[in-house]
Amino acid sequence: MNDARIAEERIDRLADFARELARAGDDERAREAVRLARRIAERHRCGLPRRFDRFTCDACDSYLLPGRTARVRLQEGSHVVIRCDCGATERYPYRG
Ligand SMILES: [Zn+2]
């Protein structure tokens, strides 16, 4: 198993861990898990997987859990707007 693969697996585990922590209400530790995953991704220049990146706030590194740490709404049927509790918003095409 090469380094990049190991990094991906660590990031995957951190994503699961961050989600569990956010669900449990431990926002600060969830944020630490997000930051650690970002650092690993940077070191390996692989970026966060999209499915994880979309659940993190670029402004405060919070794990975005709809209904708890984030609000989600559809915009004109074609975009999803996620607003973090810190006030930052991210906008994505509905598909992809
Ligand atoms: Zn935020």
TrEMBL record:
Give one Pfam family, short name only: Rpr2
Query: Which locations, inside or outside the cell, does it occupy?
Result: Cytoplasm
| EC number(s) from the headed UniProt entry | 3.1.26.5
Q: Which cofactors are named for this entry? A: Zn(2+)
Q: Where does Zn(2+) bind?
A: 57, 60, 84, 86
The GO annotation for biological process reads:
tRNA 5'-leader removal
Q: Which UniProt keywords apply?
A: Cytoplasm, Endonuclease, Hydrolase, Metal-binding, Nuclease, tRNA processing, Zinc
Statement: the UniProt record of this protein carries the keyword Metal-binding: yes
Q: Which family does it belong to?
A: Belongs to the eukaryotic/archaeal RNase P protein component 4 family.
Purpose: Part of ribonuclease P, a protein complex that generates mature tRNA molecules by cleaving their 5'-ends.
Task: Write the protein's name.
Answer: Ribonuclease P protein component 4
Species whose genome carries this gene: Halobaculum magnesiiphilum
